[in-house]
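Journal club prep, notes for RB
We'll compare a predicted complex against what the paper describes. Inputs for the uridine-5'-diphosphate case:
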Amino acid sequence: MSLLITGGTGYIGSHTVVELLQLGKDIIIVDNLSNSSTLVLDRVKAITGKTVTFIKADICDEAALDTVFKEHDIEAVVHFAGLKAVGESNDLPLSYYQNNVSGSVTLFQVMAKHGVKNLVFSSSATVYGENNPSPLDETMPTSATNPYGQTKLMVEHVLFDLARSDSEWSIACLRYFNPIGAHESGTIGENPNGVPNNLLPYVAQVAVGRLPQLQVFGDDYDTPDGTGVRDYIHVVDLAIGHVRALESLTKIKGCKAINIGTGNGTSVLEIVNTFKEISGQEINYKVVPRRAGDIGTVYADASLANTLLGWQATRNLNTMITDTWRWQSQNPNGFE
Ligand code: NAD
Ligand code: UDP
């Protein structure tokens, strides 16, 4: 039996594939390479000594997915594939709804047709919208403030309805907080296209000299130093969260939304100062006005993941930043 990993050559997917290969799992990756490269597969092989079956295909391509399910004995799917840039989603909403919503529905239809009803889905803390106070827990109301967030929320609704319609489905919607860091080998990590939108890749590229200056979006939030607070989680802890979710699917009847965070908040300036200390590089920054749509403080109540999946994050901020820096300094231009 194999596991199908959509988006498996991407940032979080590749780290999850490493953890699964190290447990001896047979892995099939489907990815259209719109935001990743097959060079990742060589790096994954170098880390694990194992190979995966890679299929270049789009999740919107029903016939291609059908062939994958016909030719392989798949027991469960981890569904990472999707577009993820909030700003871009405002400019290209149709691409986001097509890729993230239509593509997901196509995947679920093919899964249902082949009787594969075990699924772990990449959701996001963005589904908590802007009105809930942190710590955020899974009982809180959900909403979205941009097309990207809408796509995550819509797919969650699809999955809750699907599980209600057919009791054979076991689904974990993992609501990630802010994944950062890289594999400790320094050979795989986050490799954004163009100028990064997220804080950590931006800081890392300033540290390595690719970008001149970080803009800190606002220092007038109601937080200890006025800058935005987020729940950063090491991508390897997140990857292990997927392993635990897969192991727990037999216990999860229906569809469950589960936070994957540390439960701790860290400010932008704490990130900058820790990065400076660990890398030994100057991080040139300037404070600018708040970014539209940003919230001051976001962190998880991570207790459900602990009780339901037996999972909790174990890597601290120093490890997250040490591993980010190792990846960035060894690969200043990403996988190129
Ligand atoms: P990523 O862009 O590195 O990986 C996504 C992968 O999916 C890429 O390899 C891309 O080529 C592939 N892909 C995109 N559209 C596809 C399609 N239509 N068919 C086949 N493959 C396709 O992103 P990531 O950071 O690894 O994120 C993985 C998932 O987690 C995404 O669904 C994302 O929305 C979600 N998520 C990410 C974060 C984050 O901060 N990184 C936070 C919350 C949720
Ligand atoms: N941030 C910043 N400068 C940047 C990118 C992000 O000051 O160039 C801040 C942002 O305002 C937020 C935090 O860093 O407080 C994390 O932002 P990111 O975009 O990484 O994650 P998200 O806001 O989606 O949780």
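Talking point for the session: Residues 93-113 form the longest helix (21 residues).
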